[in-house]
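[User]
Um, tokens okay?
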Amino acid sequence: MAQHFEVHADNPQARLLKQAAALLKAGGVLAVPTDSSYALVCHMDDKEAVEKMRRIRQVDDKHHLTLLCQDLSALANFAKVDNRQFRLLKLATPGPYTFILEASKEVPRRVSHPQRKTIGLRVPEHKALQMLLDIHGEPLLATTLIAPGESEPMNDPALIRERFEHALAAVVDAGACALQATTVLDLTPMGEGGEPEVIREGAGDLAALGL
């Protein structure tokens, strides 16, 4: 049965998030709040945990997973970023944006997109998740928590526990999230002198980035 860590959204309890981080290190899949919706997360170097996360979502290895990073320095370790891309990333982080970038050699092959060798990365603006990333000490592999057969992300921690109590190691409950998908930007064209491509317009403000 999934453990339940009820944390304050603005002043999260480190003691509880240390317990959640320990479950991640042990190979658990957790449901966590973000600045868009709840997400499933796991330790990125744990192959079994990654496969379990895909099974919970019922997606195959072609489904693009995302690395949640604490800050830009962590993001730059896992993606090839040039000066133009970095300036845009600096404007947009932390925030509800997902960026598609060319994966660096630090990214496990099973995590990057199999055909394009790209990776989705983001720096979320949510205090509980930021603290969890800090305690964990490295990025977490994530996918939006959408129940199989549904089209909308889940946002109610109680319903998440009820639906997935036997599949998850824990639910980090910080109350309801904004429930709006991230804005997804493909920055790979910028590496060849092009412009970023808007894949999905969501919570992240494009005008704030000059787009």
About this structure: The radius of gyration is 16 Å. The first strand starts at residue 3 and ends at 6. Helices lie at 14-25, 47-57, 72-78, 83-92, 127-136, 157-164. Residues 13-162+183-204 form a domain with the DHBP synthase fold (CATH 3.90.870.10).
